[in-house]
Design goal:
This protein is mainly alpha-helical. It contains 5 helices and 2 strands; from the N terminus they run E-H-H-E-H-H-H. The longest helix is centred in the last third of the chain and has 16 residues. This is Transposase.
Length: about 110
């Protein structure tokens, strides 16, 4: 999905844990080809996942705990729409000077 967006490649990061699919030669080759900034969590470093854990807490608090969906597909669409329709383009972040992620990406482009 990141490759299909019109964001500057220099702003695209890939931070993963050390599971085999992320360490594979094929996956790493794709990231290098598209000039992703690549990082992996350190062995036994529980703080490496703090940012993504914060994201999951936020999506649960702002979306999941407020709604109930009849099907898994409906939940998947709601999460997709939340991320791409609100979280990235509209939600303001103190770490970004109270700007949205999309505003920061657009300004950097």
């Amino acid at each position: 999905m990141a490759l299909s967006r019109l964001l500057p490649v220099c702003l695209t990061n890939s931070h993963t844990n050390r599971e085999s699919q992320y360490c594979s030669h094929y996956y790493q080759k794709i990231l290098r080809r598209h000039k992703f900034k690549v990082s992996m969590s350190g062995k036994g470093n529980c703080y490496d996942s703090a940012a993504v854990e914060t994201f999951f807490k936020t999506i649960k608090a702002e979306l999941k705990w407020r709604h109930h969906w009849q099907t898994r597909r409906a939940a998947e669409l709601a999460i997709f729409n939340y991320i791409n329709g609100f979280y990235n383009p509209c939600r303001k972040y103190s770490a970004l000077g109270w700007n949205s992620r999309l505003a920061v990406d657009t300004k950097a482009a």
